[in-house]
Amino acid sequence: MNHENLRSDMITLFGETADYAKKFHKSTYETDMDTLLNQHGALLGRIREAFEESDESLEETASYIPQYVEEQLMAIPSKRKRDMVCLDYNMNMVSYFVPLMGEITSVKTKEFTDRMIAVWNQKMPGNKISHSSRDQIQGGFKKGLCYITTAVCKSLDKPDNCYELSLLRDYRDQYMLESKEGMKTVEEYYNIAPTIVKRINRQEDAAQIYEGIWEEYLSPCVKLIEEGRKKECQDLYSDMVHKLEKKYLYS
After folding, report:
1. Which of 10, 98, 153, 168 has its CA 20 to 30 A from that of 116?
2. Which NCBIfam families match (predicted)?
3. Tens of pLDDT along 186-206?
4. Minimal CA–CA distance to 100: which of 15, 204, 215, 201?
5. DSSP 51-65
6. Closest CA to 41 of 116, 117, 99, 105
7. What percent of the chain has pLDDT over 70?
8. What torsion, rounded to 10 degrees, do the Cα atoms 194, 39, 100, 86 define?
9. What gap in Å lies between CA 88 and CA 198, rounded to an integer?
10. Where are the alpha helices (DSSP H) in 93-229?
11. What digits encode the pLDDT tens for the residues 32-82?
C-alpha cells in the first residue's frame, strides 16, 4: 500500500470534516455523517486495510493526522492564534473525524482510534481530547440544558457526576421535558449552546467568565430547585442563555 498517498488523502478528508465541524448542528449531524460515509467509503476501506496490515502500519496510520496538525500549529507564531486554531482542530476530531473513523467495520477499529487519540494527546498535552463515536455524539443531543452547565462545572474542577450537575439534569428530565414549552426551550437551547461554549473557550479569561456564570446564574438556579421554585429557575436559566447568546453570537 502507498502510505504517502493514504496520508495525503486522510489529510484532505480531515479538511472536509473540518468544514462540517464549523457548521456542527443537531439537525444535520446524522445526514452529514451518512454523506461522509457514502462519499468516502473507498478511502475508509483503504484506511482499514492499512491498520489491519500490521501493528507498525496501524501505528503509522494512526499518527498521520496528529502529526499533520502538529506541523500546522508549529507554523503559527502567535500562541493566542495557535490556541484558537487548536480549538477548531479539537472540535473537528471529536465531532466528525474520530466518529467517522469509528464507523469502519473491523475488529481493530477501536484500537486504531484509541491510538490516534493517544498520539494526538501526546503531541498536544494542553489540548487533550477523549474518544468519541457517532452514537455518543447523537446521544449527546439529549443533554440539552446541561451543555453550558457542564462546561462551567468542568472549569471549576467539578466532576461530571457532581451534585449540581446531577440536580440540574434531573430538573431538565423531570420538569423541563415534561411540558411542550420546556421541550421547545431545551431544543432551541441546544442549537446555540455548543457555539457559545466554543466562543467562551477562545477567550483569554474563559475561567473568569465561567466563574461569573456560576455565581450569577447556576448557583442561584441550584438553590431555586432545592427550594422547589422550578419556574423561577427556568426563567433565570433562560435569562442567562439570552444574555450569553447576545454577547457571544451576535456581538
Report:
1. 153
2. CFI_box_CTERM
3. 777 777 787 888 888 888 888
4. 15
5. HHH-HHHHHHHHHHH
6. 105
7. 93
8. -50
9. 9
10. 98-102, 109-123, 134-140, 146-155, 163-174, 180-201, 206-213, 219-226
11. 999 999 999 999 999 999 999 999 999 999 999 999 999 999 999 988 788
User: Domain-by-domain residue ranges, the chain?
Assistant: 3-139, 144-248
Percent helix, strand, coil in the chain, to 5, is: 80, 0, 20
Q: Could you tell me which of 184, 186, 169 has the C-alpha nearest to residue 222?
A: 169
Give the angle subtended at the CA of 123 by the CAs of 117 and 124, to the nearest 5°. 85
pLDDT tens digits for 85-131?
A: 887 888 889 889 999 999 999 999 999 999 999 999 899 877 777 77
C-alpha distance from residue 5 to each of 50, 61, 192, 242 (Å): 12, 11, 38, 48
Crossing angle for the helix pair 219-226 and 230-248, nearest 10 degrees?
160
Residue type at 129 in one-letter notation: I
The one-letter code for the residue type at 225 is: I
